[in-house]
Every structure is written in C-alpha cells, then in structure tokens.
Amino acid sequence: MERVKTAQLYQNAEAFSGKAITVCGWVRSVRDSKTLGFIDLNDGSCFKGLQVVFEADKVDNFAEIAKFNVGSAVCVTGQLLLTPQARQPFEVHASSVRLEGASTPEYPLQKKRHSVEYLRTIAHLRPRTNLFSAAFRVRSAAAYGIHRFFQERGFVYVNTPLITASDAEGAGEMFRVTTLDQTNPPRTPDGKIDFSKDFFGTPASLTVSGQLEAECMAMAFGQVYTFGPTFRAEKSYTQRHAAEFWMIEPEIAFADLEDVMQLAEAMMKYVIRYVMDTCPQDLDFCNKFVDKGLLDRLQNVLDHDFAHVSYTDAVELLKKNNDHFDYKVEWGCDLQTEHERYLTEKVFQRPVFVTDYPAGIKAFYMRANPDGKTVAAVDLLVPGIGEIIGGSQREERLDVLQEKMQELGMNEKEYWWYLDLRRYGSACHGGFGLGFERLIMYLTGIQNIRDVLPFPRTPGSAEF
Amino acid sequence: MERVKTAQLYQNAEAFSGKAITVCGWVRSVRDSKTLGFIDLNDGSCFKGLQVVFEADKVDNFAEIAKFNVGSAVCVTGQLLLTPQARQPFEVHASSVRLEGASTPEYPLQKKRHSVEYLRTIAHLRPRTNLFSAAFRVRSAAAYGIHRFFQERGFVYVNTPLITASDAEGAGEMFRVTTLDQTNPPRTPDGKIDFSKDFFGTPASLTVSGQLEAECMAMAFGQVYTFGPTFRAEKSYTQRHAAEFWMIEPEIAFADLEDVMQLAEAMMKYVIRYVMDTCPQDLDFCNKFVDKGLLDRLQNVLDHDFAHVSYTDAVELLKKNNDHFDYKVEWGCDLQTEHERYLTEKVFQRPVFVTDYPAGIKAFYMRANPDGKTVAAVDLLVPGIGEIIGGSQREERLDVLQEKMQELGMNEKEYWWYLDLRRYGSACHGGFGLGFERLIMYLTGIQNIRDVLPFPRTPGSAEF
C-alpha cells in the first residue's frame, strides 16, 4: 500500500492500476445511496480531484462516511481502477476511509458558488476553492519558470534589500520602517524626530525597486535578476494595485535596449510555455470560467514575434483615434491604460514594445538618446492588461548622469555608490521590471490583483 | 565571431577551440613587456577569469591596453587557443581589445588583499572580488537548488505577506510599518496614536515568520514552501544575526515529526549536492581560503545519515561535560550555540536532529507530546554553525491549542483564522524554517552573515 498524491495518478495512472494506494485530502462532496457512496476528494496536489467509491460491504464505517461534512480531512485506502469510459479517468474503491479531522455544517465553503468578494474575507480558506487553487498553483509554476529561465542562461539570482535609506526611483510613496516609540519618539532640541536613535540611525523605508542595487551586481556578474517583494504606499483602490507585490528585475551588462527587449520576449514566451506545460488543468479551468479567450491568447503570444513601435509613432497612431479615449493623447504625455490596451489589442493585436519615451516622463537613470528629447526606455504592452514590463537602457555616462541629476535637483552624495559604477569600469547595460502579479493576472485572466496574492495588502487590509 | 561567456568556455572549451570569440568583462590585472601583454579578464559568469594575450603587432592600440587601469570594462575579440600545458586551460589571442568604460588608479579594488571589514563599506563593488563573487554565486545556486528540490516534489511555492497586523510567534521584536506623519501623528482624544488613520487602519509590522500563513496554504495544497524575506528588529551585533534575512519554510499536511525530519534531511543533502555540482570553482576557493575543511565536511554530510537524539538525552550527554561550557546545562534550559556545536561536532560528528524540547521554551503552536512536558519540536544542528533548521509538528487539536493559548494569555480573536484550520478539516501537519543565510555560511565557511548578504541590514546600517 503506497501513499500517493492525486497529481501522480493524473501523470501516470497506469502505474498504479489495480494497486492498493492511500490518498489523504479534503472532502469536496459526498453522495450516497443505501449501500454505495462517492467522495470527491481533493488533496491539492493538482487541480482535479479523485473519485472515491465506498460500499457498505467493503468499509466498516459506511454510515459515518456518508455523513462526513464538506471540508473534512480524510485518508482513503483502496484499489485504483482505471475507468476510461467514465467522466473521470480513474477511481479508488475504498477498503478504508479514516476521518483525520472533521468539518462542520458551518464550513464556509459549501458546494456552491461564492463571490470573490466574500472569499477575500476568508483568505485562509479560499485556496481550497477551484479558482484560487488554480491561481496559486499557476503562481507557483510561473515563479519557478522564471527562475529556470534565468538560471539556465547563467544569470545570478540576487536578493536586493527591502529596507532602504534611499528612494530608488525618487518617486512613489513609501512605507516608513521604524522601531522608535511612535507615541513619544525621541526628539532633537529643535523638536524634530531624532532618527539617529532609530534602528538604522537614519530614516528608513521599504523599497520600491531593487534596480539600482541590481545594477551593482550586474557590473560584477554580467547578468543578474532579482525576484522579491516590493512596496508602494499609494492609497490606490484599483484592481491593479497592491501595497505589497513581487517583482522580477533582470539587469544585463554590455547590453543595449535591443538586448533588453530580446530578453523580455524570450522570458515571457518561456514562462507562458512553462505554465501551459505544467498547469494544463488549472489553465483549462481559467479558460472555461474566468476568461474564455485565455488559451487562444497565450498560444497567440507564443506563435508570433512581438511588435515594436516608438513612442513617437505610437502617439501618431493613437492621436488618429483620440475620440475613443477619455484622456486625449499628445506627444509628451504618459500613456494611460486605455491607450496601451488600444495599441496592443486593436492596432497590433499582440504584445508590443513601445520604445524611446520622452525624457520628461521617465526616470533619471534612463539613457539619453541622441535626439536630446527621448530616453532609451521600453514598455511591453500585452492584450488584456496593458503595461506588464517597464525597462530601459541605463545611463552609463558619468557626466551625462550627473548633469541629469543636477537638473532634477537630486543629491549626488546620496547616490555616490550608484555613480561609482560609472567611475570604475562603466559599461552599457540595461534591464526591466516585471510585476509578478500582473503576469499571473495575464496567465489566468483574473482581473483583480487581490485574487492572485495569497494574502493581499491594500489600504485598510493587513489582517491576515 | 561569437559573443560568449567565460563560463561557457570552462564548460566546453573544445567547442570554441580555434574560433574567433568576443568576451566582455572587467580587468582584474594587466601585465606587459614591450610587445606582449596579458589581461586577467573576469566577466562574472563564473569564478575563474580568462587570460587574454595581446601583442603589439596584432592589435592597433597596444600602448593603450597596457595602461588600462584595474577595474576597466573591456570587450575582447580574438581566437581561443587551448593550452593544456599551461596553468590555465585556454587563452584568447586578441585581435581587438576595446575599452568600454575606463577605471582610475583610485579604483578601490586594486590587486591586493582587502579586509572584509573594509569591503563591507563598498558593498556596491565587493561582488567583483573573489570572496564575494563566490559567496553570491553560491547563494544564487543554493536558492535555485531549493526551488528545484521542492518543485520536483510537487510542493507549491507560496508568497506569504511581509507586512502583517499579527505577530506570528508572539516573540521577537518587530519593525513597525507606517505612513503616519511621525512628527505630528494623528491622535485619539486620549492622546494615543490614531492607527485607524494609518495605511492599513491598524498597527502593522514586518513579519518574523510566514509559518502561520503557510499552514493555511498547506491545508489546501498538502505540500507548500515559502522562500522570502523575514525581519527581526533585535539590536544584535553578533556575526549570526541580520535585521533582514531570507527564510525557507516548508509545511506539509498529513505528516508528523518524522516526516518533517525526512524532508529536512533530503533537502539539505539535495542542496549541498546541487551547489557542489554547479559551483565547484567557488567551493574550491572557499575550501582553500576561507575554511580548509569545507569540502570534506560537506561530503561527510552527503555520505551519512543524520543523527537523532531527544532533547532529554542530549541534556544528559551535555551535563557530563558541563565544565566545558560557559552556560551550564539543565533540563528545561534552551540550548546555547556552544552546546549545539558540542553535540554536532564532538558527540555525533555529523548533523543531528534534536527532538522533543520542553514545552516552556518553544512556541505555542507546537504539538504537545503525550508526556505532558515536551512538544514535538525539532532543531537540526550542523558542525560549524549549530542550529540551522527549527521545526515542529503543529498542534492540530483545536481544544489543546485553545487551552495552550489561554495558558499563555493570547487573544484567541486575533487568531480566529488560525484556529479555523483546526475547525474545518484539521490534519496532522508540520514544517520547518531554514535560515537561508545560515545555509550559505554553512556552504561557504564564511563566518559573518554580513558577508553572505549582498546589502546587509544591521543596526545602524541601511545605507545602500
């Protein structure tokens, strides 16, 4: 008698055919007539469950089993039979069904449809539902696919710090991190908070990006990537923003914007293919019940080269359709989601790289183009989402970077280490940031970022 | 002419023999005579560098090359020649050496030994040194090895939240996370801070463990693991503690303490083997210059089963040697590092699991043993480090857990969701936490946690 996972059975049922096996999991439903019953058992190892057949003359607790509440934890031992004619490919004929942990009729996940809004209030239980089990399994596979992609190519995974005394992009509201007594903090003689007494001896915050530190590592290892949490303290209540989310930030040396785009396209295709290969049951469910065009859209991405367009040309294309948009497009404006989606969904009908944005709407570290107006920035727009990746070639010229920082009133002294990278063996380099939750939304069709994070952090919400 | 990484050459030099290749990297040293010179070039793709031979009659800028400062970024094109008789297995005979970014004589990493203390002050440059290049490459490989281990076994990777309104272990000082104005925070009529106006509407902190949330996920997926940052706001100045570090926390359902130990042993051996296979150059360096017994010790771990001893028996063994210890051992005391290392290094001479600790020194969620005194806890001790893993079987019995929480004066209402796991389909389960930096110290022999974190956060230190 072998302890097995349902996933093993779906991978190779023949190997277990006719054998006695034990499967432990949770009861999704129980049906019974007088002497025969069925349990839909799910052990979480894959999306689909296992049909357990129990018969009055084969188990010694038939009446008990028939009364199991939904959500009960049970261990089933029995013989695996292939059932190629039936709706499910195999079933277990139980010789023993042992209750591991009971459930109650008050179990919040009875067999019916629940709203995602309600399920968010029981984040500790919702991974037991079809939707969230699929979402988080896809999340796990996508994370691993990303690691595989970079590791196979020799990238070094680097953990950039989360607590920081500098504000990476000079933009975005940040969470303060402190151990000072908030009620009566130590103060300097002039009444200000005395941060010299705080844990780090200086004001500290949660990072909004690991890019600048990743650049340090890229100038040592050539190719690196981060994969870690990132924070934004914006009181945003949209479906697309969370206060705590995960980012992937590769950075490559001796590379220009073209190399950055090639890397981004290869990575996106690799991850999509990896998740399609490893999570077919989960994606099938999403394709049926979340977003009916999902699988076609993903396959379409694999089958075509990504499009390329300059910001300047994109603006010309959009201006012709300004009557479609709430925000009218003009050269120099930041593209809104409605514009991004129009470009990728209507104009190009596939993922598109938009390059060379006006310097004024992009970060200080992006490389100035020869035209004096634009920078070597790139956003990747995908159907259904809009921007999923933002990247750039970085300004590797010390004098140009210093001039830019002065122009923006930035304090060079705070960035001495970042400038050092341009003093000692500078090299053209670039990278991008991929919002991991945006990727999971893209891979599942789920529309709300709260539903792809196990325990989402949003304004007013950090309970559990 | 093909752009290649040095690592590719060390993997299969024959494939490039006689061919024209281009390698881009940083100059570690330049030597020259009148017409012949050598560059030690390192591109970060592997530990070892590439010898570049440049000759006055083959390149058009011999004099310029000969004056390159250490740290310069260059791109070299030339023919790869195998040199089986020489100290290095191959070299490149340059037809072109192009300066990508200059360095200066002030470059802080001149070719001499620097103290690790000094190198910590230039964390942005130290990954370009032998020691830190090895440490961070091992770190990357170990991280991937861990993901591989769990993914191959069907574990679901889960991202537990970092910002939390609850204190997971009820222990350990935590960082407060806030967006309130610290100088003049909003106050309630009785003068307290009005946290209802803070970002999350309640006091929030940085997590000290994702375990409780991981338990929620394990009760849906059966087998899960976390791998993410964790925080401790303790003003500890030891070599073993950082304020921000990474943890791996697997959690398995329908599993007891024995299963937890089997998982931990399998994981440790897998990761050691993976790093030995993928980072031989890095480990060789560590074995030569950091810790001369390193490779023998790692091989020894692979070759033997881990030992097992109960806490009670371990205390008996230690008491016999109490004259060796600063802290004398008595049943009921927590084991200090000196005791842990004595057990694993002197008594067992291999990794050892110590099990069944007194309930009073362990966390509330650990499963009570039938003896009424101990809990089903386990620590894994390893030579050179002491404790590297701490785990337990979790208390899955609702009434026993509630009684324990009352005994400790804990507020049940704050843990309603954790208790729900015991109300609806509870199952015996357990898991452990592995401090990732401790693992890297173990794998490299590096003694200070500040030297295995790219940008360590310790009291007074969060600059970059």
UniProtKB/TrEMBL annotation, chains A, B:
Biological process (GO), any one: asparaginyl-tRNA aminoacylation
PROSITE patterns: AA_TRNA_LIGASE_II (PS50862)
Predominant location category: cytoplasm
Subcellular location, record wording: Cytoplasm
Enzyme class: ligase
Gene Ontology CC: cytoplasm
CDD domains: AsxRS_core, EcAsnRS_like_N
Subunit structure: Homodimer.
Family statement: Belongs to the class-II aminoacyl-tRNA synthetase family.
PANTHER family, A to Z: ASPARAGINE--TRNA LIGASE, MITOCHONDRIAL-RELATED, ASPARTYL/LYSYL-TRNA SYNTHETASE
The protein, known as: Asparagine--tRNA ligase
